[in-house]
Design brief:
Layout: E1 3-6, E2 11-15, E3 20-24, E4 28-29, H1 30-36, H2 53-57, E5 60-68, H3 70-74, E6 77-82, E7 89-93, E8 96-101, E9 108-111, H4 112-115, E10 123-131, H5 134-145, E11 186-187, E12 191-196, E13 200-212, E14 225-237, E15 243-250, E16 253-258, E17 263-269, E18 285-293, E19 296-305, E20 310-313, E21 324-327, E22 330-332, E23 334-339, H6 346-351, H7 354-364, E24 369-372, H8 381-390, E25 393-397, H9 409-426, E26 432-436, H10 441-444, H11 448-453, H12 458-476, E27 481-483, E28 504-505, H13 517-520, E29 527-529, H14 538-542, H15 555-559, H16 566-577, H17 584-608, E30 617-620, H18 643-651, E31 655-661, E32 665-672, E33 678-687, E34 693-703, E35 707-715, E36 725-732, E37 735-743, E38 758-764, E39 767-773, E40 778-784, E41 789-791, E42 796-798, E43 803-810, H19 816-822, E44 824-826, H20 828-831
Parallel strand pairs: 23-24, 23-30, 24-25, 25-26, 26-27, 28-29
Antiparallel strand pairs: 1-12, 2-3, 2-5, 4-11, 5-10, 6-9, 6-12, 7-8, 7-10, 13-14, 14-17, 15-16, 15-18, 18-19, 20-21, 21-22, 31-32, 32-35, 33-34, 33-36, 36-37, 38-39, 39-43, 40-42, 40-44, 41-43
Helix pairs in contact: 7-8, 9-12, 17-18
Bound molecules: beta-D-mannopyranose.
Length: 837
């Protein structure tokens, strides 16, 4: 029987140069272990990052005793498997070299009975992995190939260490415009040893075809698909001719078949489909392949798979070409954000539960898609398992971003290995929507700098991203689409940033300095990136900066801002919308409100445009951080939600309404991303700052499925109305269902009345419900406390005399008393200087 065991314990990490030797567990990395052993100070504190280059400039060795039994040595094969080595290393066994590794994104395997048979001994063997510095290697490669492959011309400062493009290692770790320069080293994923006897099951590849019911035509029935055919191919080595059984088990279905000609076919009538959480249930079936020797299972692969028909629809239309996903026949608007690695030190983040937490955050903010961005990693299995289970789609970049790639043959070979490993690892996941060649490299070729500096790299771009990766996806995962770059219109450098076809990144707001209103002038078929920065909350700032550093331009705050002049930009935008309060804490809050307003402005516009599929996705940049920093994230490194995350929860609601104002009118739009139609009542009232109602209305509306529509157009009279506060809400059978607020002018133009906020709290089923009341219109009401918790809402607005309840779940229930003691509610009135208008 085949047998696997993890090599987790009894490793020693050492660095002779610095006289360090530490016992460690695997997976782990050098930075993580040095921190655990208190050999270095927290790299995230102050500017400690700057004094740690010795760590990544040094060589590091991991060694362990590998105990082999007689059965291991008598096996047909004995595989030593590293699921991830970061990055450049020699792997030695009993002093003999097994091989050199040079790609963090690969799974490395060594057949010990082949390569080292003579040196293996029963009992204790010595395994040693000697890592060399990735940064030194990056510099050496740059010299060797004579090209510094970077994003910007040389007079512009790059946040990324030199040579990164040559090394197949997570790019962000060399530094990014939101990430520190802390390239880690180590055994970052599991190591195992597998004994193989007789047969070897290697991988499964399944492919689905679906037949739709007639009822499907023209609307979206509950069960659109009447039959799914699932063809499973099995890759194995079976010299002993044993029987392989493939079984599929799911709701109302359980069949087991014998593998013939390496293939079986299941026909599932009335399948229970896999849906994103907002369209239905994410049903998973269990697919199992088992080799039997008599009654005994000798090898096995188990996968959870969903039955679903997911297509990328690119139809010609009046604007150009559509770009959207259709899930089981339903056109899906992708609501979500871009995802970066959870930590600068990835295994540490995984151990801290950051995958579970951040994915829950994405779901809490009503997202149905995450984009795994190309400057990080092909994520952990856990990430995709969670997305499968929860019904969250994944847009998957290959790991290339923002800089030209090398063009020597060994680099291509490395990419082929990496891409094949990851396609084969991930292709059974239902959540996986699309493979994408790279982040922003096709767009990079728009710049003169690329053309002048790297003319000979253009052909290699086309080879890598429009030939090699595309044919690998075609060969290894034929049911899934490949898209050459993000953004792109389909490739060949043809207008990658077109508004009329493909996906787009829109950075005129923020990088381009344009006002938020520029979002409304920009159309896109699928907005896969746009973003706006803010500071993390005070508790997070206190984790890296002393009180004396609490100002936008102190050295420490500037070190925790990696986008050139980013803090200046935050302030500049804030000044356009608000008066700047004196207290740093209020400034930080205001930076978050500015960010939230910006993202809401964009998303509302693109969601209004789902009509006729004009725009079918809005993924903002970025949901998470890998360290505590001022950035575009909506959730900070410690998991604290910024104002934007609460706004996102609202502007990503599957059914909602939003308001679009101009000088003389305001439109209220309804959006329904679900597949059922809804009858809802819209109520709105336009007030002045005292709460006096200037105008109001009420209307029953039908929200057609998968559509957006103008619900109400209000023409504004001159005077107060044009500077009103518009409150709007949706009601389902007399119950409030959605509420929103729009200031018709920039907030700085309002002289708010004191809303005299009062609140009372009550404990209910393990969480705390706080009811807050306003005596005058209260804009962006926000609660905070010394104790952390996630609220059902925050940064919401209240009408005069309105009462509203939020439920708050504390991270640690035991801290309830201190939470309540330090709980405070404020609104914009409290954080705007009084004499500002
Ligand atoms: C995007 C990303 C990242 C970057 C972000 C903010 O275009 O692809 O490379 O961090 O912009 O500048």
């Amino acid at each position: 029987m085949n047998h696997k065991r993890a090599l987790k314990q009894n490793w020693i990490l050492s660095c002779p140069e610095h006289n360090i030797s530490l016992p460690v567990e695997i997976p782990s990395t050098v930075f993580e272990s040095l921190l655990d052993a208190s050999i270095i100070e927290d790299p995230f504190y102050g500017d400690n990052e700057k004094s740690l280059s010795w760590v990544y400039e040094s060589q590091w060795n991991y060694s362990s005793e590998l105990v082999l039994e007689k059965e291991d040595l008598d096996a047909d094969e004995l595989i030593l498997r590293f699921h991830g080595l970061d990055t450049l290393a020699a792997v030695n066994l009993n002093g003999k070299i097994l091989g050199q590794v040079d790609n963090m994104h690969r799974c490395w395997e060594f057949n010990l009975l082949k390569e080292t048979k003579d040196t293996l001994v029963p009992g204790t063997n010595t395994l040693e992995i000697e890592f060399r510095s990735s940064t030194a290697a990056g510099r050496a490669e740059t010299r060797r190939y004579g090209r510094n492959l970077r994003e910007f011309p040389f007079f512009m400062k790059s946040p990324t260490l030199r040579g990164a493009s040559y090394i197949r290692k997570a790019l962000y770790s060399f530094g990014w415009d939101w990430g520190p320069q802390l390239p880690d080293t180590g055994i970052w994923r599991e190591v195992e040893i597998e004994r193989i006897q007789g047969v070897k099951l290697i991988n499964l590849q399944s492919c689905q075809t679906h037949s739709y019911t007639d009822a499907h035509k023209g609307h979206y029935p509950d069960h659109p698909i009447e039959k799914t055919e699932l063809r499973v191919r099995c890759e194995s080595e079976n010299p002993s001719g044993l029987e392989c059984h493939i079984s599929l088990d799911g709701p109302g279905f359980n069949e087991k078949k014998i593998l013939k000609d390496n293939e079986v076919l299941f026909e599932i009538n009335n399948p229970s489909l896999w849906w994103t959480w907002d369209l239905g249930e994410a049903v998973l079936y269990e697919l199992k392949a088992e080799y039997y020797k008599g009654e005994q299972v000798v090898d096995q692969i188990v996968q959870k798979i969903g039955l679903r028909d997911l297509k990328l629809i690119r139809d010609k239309d009046r604007w150009g070409e559509t770009f959207y996903f259709s899930l089981n026949g339903v056109p899906l608007f992708a609501r979500g954000s871009n995802w970066i690695p959870v930590d600068s030190f990835i295994p540490r983040g995984k151990k801290a539960g950051l995958y579970e937490k951040r994915i829950q955050d994405a779901l809490d903010a009503n997202m149905n898609m995450l984009r795994v961005w190309g400057g990080g990693i092909y994520e952990e299995n856990l990430f995709y398992d969670l997305c499968d289970e929860k019904g969250l789609l994944v847009w998957q970049d290959f790991m290339f971003a923002c800089m030209p790639t090398p063009k020597h043959p060994a680099f291509y070979d490395s990419v082929i290995g990496e891409a094949s490993d990851n396609i084969r690892r991930l292709r059974h996941h239902s959540c996986l929507a699309l493979w994408v060649g790279n982040n922003e490299i096709e767009g990079g070729w728009k710049s003169l700098f690329y053309w002048l500096r790297f003319p000979r790299y253009k052909k290699s771009y086309l080879y890598l991203f429009e030939d090699l990766l595309s044919s690998l996806v075609q060969e290894l995962d034929s049911g899934r689409e490949y898209w050459p770059s993000s953004p792109s219109s389909g490739g060949s450098f043809k207008n990658p940033e077109s508004e009329n076809s493909g996906d787009s990144h829109f950075w005129s707001v923020w990088h381009g300095g344009k006002p938020f209103s520029a979002y409304r002038e920009h159309y896109s078929r699928f907005m896969s990136e746009f973003g706006f920065e803010s500071f993390p909350g005070m508790k997070t700032i206190s984790s890296f900066a002393k009180e004396s550093d609490w100002s936008f331009h102190s050295n420490i705050m500037e070190n925790h801002q990696k986008n050139v002049a980013g803090n200046k930009k935050i302030l500049k935008y804030m000044k356009k919308r608000f008066s700047i309060p004196a207290s740093f804490e209020d400034q930080v809050t205001l930076s978050q409100i500015t960010q939230a307003e910006a993202m809401e402005y964009g998303v509302d516009h693109w969601r209004r445009n789902r009509q006729d599929y004009r725009c079918m996705g809005a993924l903002y940049w970025q949901i998470n951080d890998c360290w505590p920093v001022a950035s575009w994230s909506s959730v900070d490194y410690y998991g604290r939600w910024k104002a934007l995350h609460y706004f996102a929860k609202r502007f990503n609601s599957p059914i909602y309404c939003n308001a679009s104002e101009s000088d003389s009118s305001v439109e209220i739009w309804g959006v329904n991303d679900r597949r059922q139609s809804e009858e809802l009542t819209l109520e709105w009232s336009l007030c002045d700052v005292s709460g006096k109602v200037l105008r109001q209305g009420k209307k029953d509306c039908i929200f057609h499925p998968a559509d957006s529509a103008l619900l109400e157009q209000i023409d504004l009279e001159n005077g107060d109305e044009r500077q009103g506060i518009l409150f709007y809400s949706l009601w389902r059978e007399d119950k409030p269902f959605y509420r929103g607020m729009k200031l018709l002018k920039a907030p700085v133009k309002y002289h708010f009345n004191d809303p005299g906020l009062s609140w009372k709290s009550e404990e209910k089923g393990g969480s705390i419900t706080v009811t807050v009341k306003a005596e005058a219109p209260a804009v962006y009401v926000h609660w905070r406390s010394d104790i952390d918790g996630n609220g059902s809402d925050n940064y919401f607005s209240l009408m005069k005399d309105e009462e509203y309840s939020v439920e708050i779940k504390l991270w640690n229930k035991a801290e309830k008393e201190l939470f309540l003691k330090t709980l405070i509610f404020n609104s914009l009135y409290d954080i705007q200087p009084r004499d500002s208008v």
